[in-house]
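Appendix B, Record 12. Input sequence as logged:
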Amino acid sequence: MKIYAILILTESTIIKDVYDLSEFEWFKRKYIKEIIQLLVTTLVTRYNDNSNIQVKHDGYKIYMYNNIIVVTDDEYPTRVVLKLLNNVTLDNLNEMIQQYRDPYKIDKLMLLEKDLGENKVLLVKTISSLLERGEKIDDLVTKSEILSEQSKLFYKYTKKSNSCCVIL
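Logged structural output:
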């Protein structure tokens, strides 16, 4: 989950922009930035009515809301982006891209869902290990019963074989 760019535009002109392209190789960052700018200006010219749109493109999502555009990867949660779009101003773009790097810090519900998912996995593992232990205990009980029966038979056999011999 990554946020790559926040841009503020008027018509098709970029007023202010901030990028976080640290995940890409240094030589490719310039070209990726140019591609983002091209996609964004194309979107703004096509949808110049201040509409709220969301576009998917090659594993990336572009959100537009009142001439504020956010570019993220496909996994970044929409709820967090909408919160970001409502809080962005010209003055705080750098702060926002840093603050929204980790969506779990912003969206407490998402953090709770993540914790619940981890707890669910742990609970499933615990239950399966308990069931395995229960099966092992059942196996031990049946083996002990078999051993008990065999010891009784051994005792009877030895008693019969010892009864024929009398020690004087």
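Strands lie at 3-10, 13-19, 53-57, 60-65, 68-73.
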